[in-house]
Amino acid sequence: MNASEIRQKFLKFFEERGHVIISSSFLVPEGDNTTLFTGSGMQPLIKYLLGESHPAGRRLVNSQKSFRAEDIDEVGDNRHTTFFEMLGNWSLGEYFKEEQLPWFFEFLTDIVGLDPQKLYVTVFAGDKENNIPRDDESVAIWQRLFKEKGIEAKAVELMNEERGNELGLQGGRIFYYGDKNWWSRAGAPAKMPAREPGGPDSEVFYEFLGVEHNTKFGAHCHPNCDCGRFVEIGNSVFMEYKKLENGTFEKLEQKNVDFGGGLERITAASNDSSNIFTIDLLAPLVERIRSGATDSNERSERIIADHVRASVFLIGDGVAPSNKDRGYMLRRLIRRAVTHGHYLVGLPTGFLSVLIDAVISSYKDAYPDLKRDREMIREVFEKEQAAFERTYANGIKEFEKLLVKGDVISGADAFILLASHGFPLELTEELAARAGKTVDRGAFAKEVKLHQEISRAGSEAKFGGHGLYLRTGEVTIRDESEVEKVTRLHTATHLMHAALRAVLGPEVRQDGSDITVERTRFDFRFPRKISPEELAKIEEWVNGAIQRDLTVKWEETEYEEALKEGALGFFREKYPPRVKVYTVFNPKTGEVFSKEFCGGPHVEHTGTIGRFHITKEESSSAGVRRIRAQIE
Q1: Residue 346: left if φ>0, alpha if ψ -120 to 50, beta else—which one?
Q2: Which intervals hold domain Alanyl-transfer RNA synthetases family profile (predicted)?
Q3: What is the signed CA dihedral for 492, 494, 496, 499, rounded to 10 degrees?
Q4: What's the confidence (pLDDT) of residue 70?
Q5: Which end of the chain is more exposed for a tag (fewer CB within 10 A), N or C?
Q6: What is the reported pLDDT for 481?
Q7: pLDDT tens digits for 129-164?
Q8: Distance CA 73, CA 475 (A)
Q9: Which CATH class is domain 483-631?
């Protein structure tokens, strides 16, 4: 079966059993600030699982759009995706295990047509510390269901993955695990906060007999092994507990069933293909990528297909690329797709637009809003792609220079790629791995941590060392892309300082600056208001320097020697004997546009900054003016 058929048959199956079909919620959670994205079918229903009445009744079914950012690093194998659809059915205090397990088994074997010999089941082994019993009731139900198909289902206690790898299947078909078979939004019972609901679950796995066990995952295979032989296709959560303030558990007033089954994985099982990218929702994307590529790279093809599909749905649900939270994740997806498309498989510029059409074509019936919003989605894609490609070309050149330095790219060099060219660490690592190199991840983390600490510093400028040494006020740099934005604004601030002196005269003297991820604020000594005409000239001067794609370099020298060479600095008492001096210059003519004491870092070429725009000019205090500006 294809995915559309399975989606419709699932909805119809439960509708015939008294369930009301409800619409998928948006990927951006409504009224839930505990998470950035909707990652499961139960998430939009949590208040109803806790007892509130649902307007559609007590039996519900749907196919929920879902996105899990934590899976991004796993994408590229044969079964992980960031975006997926979760088939779900719920009982809000009506039926329980005795109805749910037989229904799901019937759907898999009689409706989808899966071979029951290839189905394996896991159940909760109990938690003695929290006085939660093991789920023998589900075991008895499963044994009866398998017996009806002529299969003796032996129950084996594994408890955890380590024991599973050590002992293997042992002839079993039903397996007891501990925390693996407990479901709550927070995970295991011990990790749950007060008032959080949860309960034991029973997962169903499909065995792909064509996949041989890989011993790098352990000596023996078992359902929760990561080798890919067994893939989870559905999980029935029996939500009957709530954690109290004192850490103990009590039963909920109503016993709920929360089922979630991966549409893509069930479709793959229906086709007996362990590669989820061969199903009808993803295969057309992979085929288009492969047909337009100059190099073959299966992992890259899967990453591009997944990331484009996920991005289409995120944009369709109102997410826009940015440097924060949901927008940052969307930006990361698009940039990874561009990177793998251009650099690793050689797709031409504009390939993303073709893939957007392929995604929308696959989903236009189930999600007609995508077709309606096609041009908006395309516009967001193309704008973000173009912005990244402006910095990408220079970034690749700088990356290639690093390859001749040795087998390990230093944390400092990786950070410069991020700050100057917007290359997240994972991108540098992927490119490095392709060249047989590695990246010092630990040193990179220290660089980022240093910048985070400095971003929380006080109002005075900091000097010496390697960091964002202009104050970033109350802003905490929470992700890598924010470092990039602050770095570009930092260099733009130096250019603005030079422009002020060029337009207003050398009497301009810096009196302080404050850079956040959103804007730069620059205070300078000057006796009068700046006219609109002068502000326009300052803007023009800065943007002219940006458009010339000037080179930015630094050197460390003695403080007095730097002064003699014309470097600007207005906080004499704070400078150490040896200082860093950043110079912005034209390498062809030698013309210097800016030369200042600074700790850095800066972009390596001004062309990566973006368009500079002054948003406000005002008085800060007697004899001091203040300019606020942004980059686009």
Answers
A1: left
A2: 1-632
A3: -130
A4: 84
A5: C
A6: 57
A7: 999 999 999 999 999 999 999 999 999 999 999 999
A8: 28
A9: alpha beta
Taken in order 424, 429, 434, 436, the sign of the CA dihedral is positive
The pair of three-digit structure tokens given for residue 395, joined into one six-digit string: 């970034």
Residue entry with tokens 């930015």: 552
Residue 48's identity, in one-letter code, is Y
Give the residue from 112, 313, 117, 295 showing the smallest Cα distance to 206.
Answer: 117
Residue 322 has pLDDT above 90, yes or no: no
- Cα–Cα nearest to 110, from 102, 122, 98: 102
Cis amide bond preceding 601, omega within 30: yes
* Burial grade of 622 (CB within 10 A; 0-12, 13-18, 19 or more): exposed
Structure tokens of 468?
């964002």
* Separation CA 387–CA 379 (nearest Å): 12
Give 430-477 pLDDT, tens digit per residue: 889 989 999 999 999 888 777 666 545 633 333 222 233 333 332 334
Task: Look up the pTM and report it.
Answer: 0.71
Helix (H, G, I), strand (E, B) or coil at 298: helix
CB atoms inside a 10 Å sphere around CB 418 = 25
Given a contact cutoff of 8 angstroms between Cβ atoms, the answer to whether 425 and 418 are in contact is yes
Cβ atoms of 300 and 273 closer than 8 Å: no
CA dist., res. 402 & res. 410, Å (int): 9
User: φ, ψ for residue 6 (rounded to 5)?
Assistant: -65, -40
Phi-psi region of 200 (alpha: psi -120 to 50; beta: other; left: phi over 0): beta
Q: Decide: 359 and 312 in contact? Cβ < 8 Å.
A: yes
For residue 604, what is the DSSP state?
Answer: S
Structure tokens at 122: 């896991």
- DSSP structure class, residue 347: P
Tokens of 443: 């040193």
Answer whether 333's CB lies under 8 Å from 283's CB. no
The dihedral built from the CA positions of residue 604, 609, 613 and 619, taken in this order, carries a sign that is negative
Cα–Cα distance, 17 to 90 (Å, whole number): 12
Cα 497 to chain centroid distance, Å, stands at: 36
Domain formed by 3-278, architecture: 2-Layer Sandwich (3.30)
Which three-class secondary structure state does DSSP give residue 378?
A: helix
CA angle 487, 488, 490 (to 5 degrees): 65
